[in-house]
Amino acid sequence: MMVVLLGGLQSISPEYYDAAQIDGGASGWQQFKSITMPLLKPVLVPATVLGGSSGHLIISTSFTLLREGGPHGRNGYFGNVAL
Length: 83
Fold this sequence. Notes:
- By secondary structure, this protein is mainly α.
- The protein is built from four helices and no strands.
- The mean pLDDT is 79.
């Protein structure tokens, strides 16, 4: 996800920030709110959706292994390893 966001940030032209400084002396927060976030939205929304769905798969796989056991009936948590 970080690589996707970095690509989105690099695609924003520096001319937008220069124009914001010249026109109204926009602060860093105003530039972020008015330029960066709207231009990152087409990249940020799909990256967030895909990141959230992959996180769900990792968590559900972990719970499945804990509940049903791993290879040869062994569970992956320490409570059953000592037995």
